[in-house]
Write a structure and sequence with these properties.
Largest sheet: 3 strands, antiparallel
Oligomer: single chain
Mean pLDDT: 83
Number of helices: 16
Structural class: mainly alpha
Helix content: over 70%
Strand content: 5-15%
Number of domains: 3
Distance between the termini: 84 Å
Number of strands: 3
CATH topology of the largest domain: Receptor-associated Protein
CATH architecture of the largest domain: Up-down Bundle
CATH class of the largest domain: Mainly Alpha
Length: 394
């Protein structure tokens, strides 16, 4: 329930100002009337606004529902109210209620979305603003629904390819720690006083070090994790890390295709909605998802402002697929830039899926081999002294 800042008058025509919680304008007016006051003007206290950033999937669902309702002839305020009543997610429902209140106060949809404290991305707000000017709110909303659906699918595929090796690394570390702290100490008690092979002695030293310094190692791991988190929050480090991503063997192809797909899809959506090329490129730089590429896109925007062709300037951007500039050149010559970019983004979406699947097929056996080598080395370190014992007994 939002808190309103209101101006009212009493029966003696004296002005009264204050704050009051209410569900809507009508609810606020009723509550003031009960207290002998008449509402003159009101606004929402921004400090009490609910904050929630919608995910790409939620944005896709929002745009699809909005587009269908608008195209069916439903008024904007009625459509938002219907969406709020049907929404099962309480966080999204609160955002929709706030959006409805702002619109009922006389704000346009794009202005109301801006007031909702970063719940909606700047790109969507600009697209809605352009749609309001052209009278194509329904069509633009459905187009943006498709855009965010692709973005969600793209992000999911990229994350699945990256999270797989992370899971295997965590499992490998966990298995090794269990072996060193639980399993090996039991075996090494059998070899006490015996001269051990170098590999067994090494495993014994590692096991003793871990078991004797568990708390110290946990504290060090915690400090390192906090330090890494802090460093990754710095823009300079993010820039260097994003640049390094594009040089990683195996992964660099996936990143380049992903950024190319995101750029093509975003530019196509913005350009087809009537957004100028310069403004579209500035928005692309903000949503590309890589600081290194974003910096290059800012330089690219400057070149386009200077009158250079986009197809010629984009060749200098490191982080995009090579065929991107060729498609843009064809689009510039044919005058159908948006259609060609949309077609290219669909091709890239397929390429991302194939590349991610191929990466997983390569990473899976590689990680299994690494885990087998680690476990095999540990097993050999245990078996060698056992064989020595058998030979001595023999």
């Amino acid at each position: 329930m939002p808190r309103y800042k209101y101006l009212s008058k009493d029966m003696g025509n004296n002005k009264r100002r204050g704050f009051m919680y209410a569900d809507s304008k009508d609810d606020l007016s009723t509550k003031l009337f009960v207290n002998g006051l008449y509402l003159v003007s009101f606004s929402i206290d921004n400090d009490t606004l609910f904050e929630y950033k919608l995910t790409t999937k939620q944005l896709s669902d929002f745009c699809r529902a909005l587009g269908n309702l608008v195209l069916s002839g439903t008024s904007l305020t009625r459509g938002i109210d219907i969406m709020a009543n049907q929404e099962s997610n309480q966080n999204i429902q609160k955002i929709l209620i706030q959006l409805s209140i702002f619109i009922k106060q006389g704000n346009t949809l794009s202005s109301a979305m801006t007031l909702c404290k970063k719940s909606f991305p700047i790109m969507l707000i600009n697209m809605i603003y352009s749609a309001e000017q052209s009278g194509k709110l329904g069509q633009t909303s459905l187009k943006m629904s498709e855009y965010y659906r692709k973005e969600y699918k793209l992000n999911s595929k990229t994350k699945s390819a990256l999270i797989y090796p992370k899971i295997l690394i965590v499992i490998t570390v966990a298995v090794v720690l269990i072996i060193f702290t639980v399993v090996l100490p039991v075996f090494f008690e059998m070899f006490e006083g015996q001269k051990l092979p170098w590999v067994t002695q090494l495993m014994l030293d590692i096991s003793l070090f871990i078991t004797n310094n568990v708390m110290t190692l946990m504290v060090i791991a915690g400090v390192v994790a906090v330090l890494i988190t802090y460093l990754l929050s710095l823009k300079e480090v993010q820039y260097k890390m994003d640049k390094f991503k594009l040089k990683l063997p195996l992964f660099n192809k996936l990143f380049k295709i992903t950024y190319s797909a995101r750029f093509a899809s975003t530019l196509s959506s913005l350009y087809s909605a009537g957004v100028s090329m310069v403004d579209a490129l500035e928005l692309c730089a903000k949503v590309i998802g890589n600081h290194y590429v974003s910096q290059q896109l800012e330089d690219l925007t400057f070149d386009v402002k200077s009158g250079k062709l986009l197809s010629a300037s984009i060749k200098k951007v490191k982080g995009f697929d090579l065929q991107l500039s060729s498609f843009i050149l064809i689009g510039e010559e044919s005058g159908e830039m948006d259609k060609l970019l949309e077609s290219l983004s669909n091709n890239y979406e397929y390429d991302v899926e194939m590349t991610a699947d191929n990466m997983i097929k390569i990473i899976e056996p590689a990680m299994i081999v690494i885990l087998a080598i680690i476990i095999g080395t540990i097993m050999i370190s245990v078996l060698l002294p056992l064989l020595q014992m058998y030979e001595t007994i023999g």
